[in-house]
Amino acid sequence: MVLTDTGAKLSKSLIRDGRVASPPGARPWMLDITAWDGDTNSFVDAMVWLVGRMLADPEHFYRSCTTAELDRLMTARPEATANVRAREMNLYRRYFDLVVDGTKTIEVRVQYPNLRTLKAGDHIRFVCGRDDALTHVKRVTRYTSFEEMLDSEGPEKVNPTSPRDQQIADIRRIYGPEKEALGVLAIEIELVADPTP
Description:
By secondary structure, the chain is an alpha/beta fold.
């Protein structure tokens, strides 16, 4: 919940006498995104970053903040993210740590509709709890099966700590046959920023 500087709910403070009013303490961009100090992409990136931070910690689920605090959070995101538009992808801790230490250079996904446009030059921010790591996409290669992908890419690039057969079993626990049938993506990545704590 967002509160004005008087403690009232921002959503209720916006409507007075059948028209939108500007409550005390509300920044102009909170009512009109064209007033954001930056372009639309930077506003969207700041919102995605803010929502990601809020959802990463259960203590934020029922937290209220003032318009001043919301403004501070939106404009204080880390510089490493300020000029990079990145897709966010969640990773289990064991895989996230391999990305961070640079030994996992191939991320495996299935070709969901939202990943069909993923290409070299894009950025992916991998998220694990409160931690995140920004990566650069070097290449995206499509395969028909997980076996074909591992045989072509090499299992050590996907998970250097696990043998090929174990990787197949682990991947299939995450993605069932109907997901594999969508097509398999091998995403070659390189770390471009330290993870933020």
